[in-house]
């Protein structure tokens, strides 16, 4: 009986892990294809970036609902819904003839990932026996950390040899395997309590996210200010309604050290997502390389980040949080400076070395920043803190992508497509360097007391 339970648990975790892996993989795989999408659909960079941004926005809205979903529905029900949404999105993108359908597919994929990603960790934390929980968490974390390393390479090679739609075609069998395995492994459970949804905070949060991101990519000044106004009003309404029907526990923001470390973590998230958009586009548009080279360029750095994530956790246990975090921030700063200095050379090997140094810094400190920020909270606040961190990470990723795309579009209009991409990239690297310096001082403040 115990062996059967273990088999079903492992199968369920692998099924949810395959879905989560596919979701994270597809998040980065499409970034490499943007120059091809610009050419095919005849749109500028700030429009094309919605391929990534709409995906991240939907996840940012869905993740705060994970607690409600887990209380209201069984794991089997959630898994099936997540898988079917993701499968529908992948199927739409296999045959997307226009940009609107491409975005619709990405929206469906975002819903699937937004439900499926928290579900995997929920299964591990609630179903796995204590003696197996560590190994299961390691398996779960591995799926989400290795996917960003593979994504750009996978997307770049396929888009170069075949067509970007095949990125989804080859992913489809993996989703089918995930669904079949989940149907066999996840047991039928009795319906859970019928808890009402806090729909007003959900709606106002959605309006706020969409308005702010849309404002960043607005071409007309009056549209920018209108969207900014809608975003601010939505934010105020969200705070008001959230007090009555709590969706995200905002009271944890009273912990200054938590906020300081969260800010540093979000700067890292902006850096990761912003550069995963920026560098492949620069290499193709200004560097003259194909999408395969652009995708392969991102692989070593992303792999370093994935490998260092568990190692950095051990460093935290052995020597504390401060040294790994500060060392990582300094290395990331050095890598950014080198990227800026070496950009005019257009040397793949020199730029690759700089990118690897930056990712070495991120790998050492990224997970430790998350652990340290949550460690400043009380035990009863950890669940709310984790929800806030996950939501803001996705939103900041969308903000970074939209902002990078808008800056590139502005420079491309002024200086031409190729030269504008090069100059825009230089400015963005400078802006990221300034953010890293602010992040360093913020981390020092957050770490001033022993965690």
UniProtKB/TrEMBL annotation:
Signal peptide: none
Localization per record: Cell membrane
Alphabetical list of InterPro entries matching this protein: MFS, MFS_dom, MFS_trans_sf
Domain of life: Bacteria
Predominant cellular place of this UniProt entry's protein: membrane
Residue ranges of domain Major facilitator superfamily (MFS) profile in the record: 8-451
Gene Ontology terms, MF aspect: transmembrane transporter activity
Topology class, membrane: Multi-pass membrane protein
TM stretches of this protein: 7-28, 48-66, 78-101, 107-125, 137-159, 165-185, 197-214, 220-239, 259-279, 291-313, 325-343, 349-369, 395-414, 426-447
Keyword terms, alphabetized: Membrane, Transmembrane, Transmembrane helix, Transport
One GO CC term, this protein: plasma membrane
Protein name: Multidrug efflux MFS transporter
Organism encoding this protein: Lactococcus taiwanensis
């Amino acid at each position: 009986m115990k062996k059967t339970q273990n088999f079903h648990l492992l199968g369920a975790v692998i099924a949810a892990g395959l879905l989560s892996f596919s979701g994270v993989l597809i998040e980065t795989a499409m970034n490499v294809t943007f120059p091809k999408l610009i050419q095919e659909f005849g749109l500028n960079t700030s429009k094309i970036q919605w391929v990534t941004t709409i995906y991240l926005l939907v996840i940012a809205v869905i993740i705060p609902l994970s607690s409600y979903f887990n209380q209201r529905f069984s794991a089997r029900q959630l898994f099936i819904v997540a898988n079917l949404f993701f499968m529908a999105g992948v199927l739409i993108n296999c045959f997307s003839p226009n940009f609107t359908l491409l975005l619709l597919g990405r929206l469906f994929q975002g819903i699937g990932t937004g439900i499926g990603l928290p579900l995997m960790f929920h299964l591990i934390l609630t179903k796995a026996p204590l003696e197996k929980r560590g190994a299961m968490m390691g398996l779960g974390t591995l799926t989400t950390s290795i996917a960003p390393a593979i994504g750009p390479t996978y997307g770049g090679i396929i888009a170069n040899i075949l067509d970007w739609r095949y990125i989804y075609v080859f992913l489809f069998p993996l989703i089918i395997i995930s669904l079949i395995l989940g149907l066999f492994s996840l047991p039928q459970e009795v319906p859970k309590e019928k808890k009402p949804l806090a729909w007003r905070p959900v709606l106002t949060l959605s309006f706020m996210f969409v308005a702010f991101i849309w404002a960043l990519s607005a071409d007309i000044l009056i549209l920018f200010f209108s969207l900014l106004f809608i975003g601010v009003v939505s934010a105020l309404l969200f705070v008001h309604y959230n007090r009555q029907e709590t969706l995200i526990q905002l009271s944890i923001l009273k912990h200054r050290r938590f906020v300081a470390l969260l800010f540093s973590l979000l700067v890292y998230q902006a850096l990761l997502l912003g550069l995963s958009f920026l560098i492949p586009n620069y290499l193709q548009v200004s560097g003259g390389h194909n999408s395969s080279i652009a995708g392969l360029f991102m692989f070593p750095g992303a792999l370093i980040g994935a490998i260092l994530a568990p190692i950095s956790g051990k460093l935290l246990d052995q020597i504390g949080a401060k040294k790994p975090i500060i060392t990582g921030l300094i290395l990331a700063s050095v890598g950014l400076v080198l990227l800026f200095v070496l950009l005019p050379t257009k040397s793949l090997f020199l730029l690759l070395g700089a990118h690897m140094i930056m990712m070495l810094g991120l790998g050492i400190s990224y997970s430790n920043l998350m652990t340290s920020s949550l460690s400043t909270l009380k035990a009863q606040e950890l669940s709310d803190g984790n929800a806030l961190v996950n939501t803001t990470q996705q939103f900041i990723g969308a903000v970074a992508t939209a902002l990078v795309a808008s800056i590139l579009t502005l420079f491309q209009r002024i200086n031409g497509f190729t030269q504008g991409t090069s100059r825009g990239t230089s400015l963005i690297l400078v802006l990221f360097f300034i953010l890293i310096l602010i992040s360093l001082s913020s981390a020092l403040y957050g770490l001033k007391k022993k965690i």
